[in-house]
Description:
Layout lengths: L2 H6 L5 H27 L4 H8 L1 H9 L5 H22 L3 H23 L7 H6 L7 H20 L1 H9 L1 H6 L4 H40 L5 H26 L3 H23 L1
Amino acid sequence: MDLTSYITEPFQYGFMLRALGVAIIVSITCPLVGVFVITRGYGFMGDAMAHSIFPGMALALVVGLSPWYGMLPAALVFAFLIGFVMRKTGIQADAAIGILFASLFALGIILISLSGSRVSVNLEDILLGQILAVTTGDILMTLGVAFLTLVLFVGYFKELMFVSFDPIGAEVAGVNVAWIDYLLLAMISVVIVVTIQAVGVILVLAMLIAPAAAASLTAQRVLHIIGFGILFALLASISGLYASYYGNLPSGASIALASGIIFAIVAMIRRRIS
Length: 274
């Protein structure tokens, strides 16, 4: 097989093209909020979100709806509660996330238990996703979230930067810090939930944290970090899909592993240079 055939063969199939499309959208969207996830210490939020949306999923299933209809409202409630607990108690983000994550996950398990056989949740789909099974509708939904995230990112970029790096100075300058905090948490929540629907928790965590973390080792300015983050996420997505196709491996796990490998390579290069 020549090089051209090797490169083009996987994408002669519609499911691979759709997977590539949603992977590219995720690769662009996640680093936009990922840089603030790293800055604000919200790295634990992706995993916590996946567990905290269980009550919403359970309620949706009880009334006969797809679990995804309960995920977004539950995620927004979770984001609001994180901001509320942090502001009212003064505890750190990781502590607030941990407390709410455990409580809401337990509530979801109880609701699922009380519902009996009416509720069935496929945890493997939530963890690993089904990126090779995404539909055109999934792509459009993910694209809509990407567009909304980009609009909010551009519209509130200065405020997000100010609050993330100097919250006290931002408050003194008259910025509504509480609103910006809630907005950022809501953006992260929406990106996580809609991306989980398409590609699972593992890939969301990989795309949200690893590219931004690797980019932070290569650049100082935030826009440069975001640019490198998108580049690293795209490299991970494309190489992961190729590894999945030719190695007959799980796609989400392959992309996540590629993302981790890229971070390791960047970290080693940074250490050698410094």
